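Run log // design_07
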């Protein structure tokens, strides 16, 4: 296999890159894409000339991207390396709960932050109550809008921002839509929302 290009050339853990070249395998599992020779990325899509790969966790210092060689191995044959820049940025894996009202507390799970991290809900700053390397406890700020209003959550640290994690204003369970809008007795309707129980009889 041979690598011709990698896009984008500056990424963070969890991002996806596109590797173009030749003699890749069209079967994702037969392509071993390694970073720094030891950390394997997950191949999401594959063809003989193009791979889409998820960046694994790679150490980096805030504000100082780490130059990392990337190689592709197919059937024991390894390509020449090509470098990309991996930088440290916060990454939010999830919120608990991801539906709450202003003034309530939620916990963000993720990585890439420390004391001094800031959190916003829909662009509005939230009070950070507690910080650990893998969790942030915050108070939901005063958000405008009725239940169901979206307020994506972003963590910033050292000038770098995280992915946007979904968050909705409201209480669980939260009904977001009912289809169809009109129905008669014995008709079926589809109720969409958050916080429903997976067992029908428990709702």
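design_07 sequence
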């Amino acid at each position: 296999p041979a690598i011709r290009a990698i896009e984008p050339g500056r990424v963070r853990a969890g991002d996806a890159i596109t590797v173009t070249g030749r003699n890749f395998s069209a079967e994702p599992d037969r392509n071993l894409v390694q970073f720094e020779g030891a950390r394997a990325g997950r191949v999401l899509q594959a063809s003989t000339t193009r791979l889409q790969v998820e960046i694994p966790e790679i150490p980096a210092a805030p504000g100082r991207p780490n130059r990392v060689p990337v190689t592709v191995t197919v059937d024991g044959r390894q390509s020449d390396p090509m470098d990309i820049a991996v930088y440290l940025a916060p990454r939010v894996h999830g919120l608990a709960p991801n539906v709450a009202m202003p003034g309530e507390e939620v916990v963000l799970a993720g990585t890439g932050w420390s004391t001094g991290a800031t959190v916003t809900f829909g662009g509005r700053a939230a009070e950070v109550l507690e910080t650990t390397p893998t969790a942030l406890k915050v108070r939901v700020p005063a958000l405008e809008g009725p239940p169901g209003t979206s307020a994506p959550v972003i963590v910033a640290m050292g000038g770098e921002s995280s992915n946007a994690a979904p968050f909705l204003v409201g209480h669980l369970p939260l009904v977001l839509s009912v289809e169809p809008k009109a129905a008669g007795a014995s008709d079926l309707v589809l109720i969409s929302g958050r916080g429903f129980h997976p067992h029908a009889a428990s709702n």
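The chain is about 0% helix and 50% strand.
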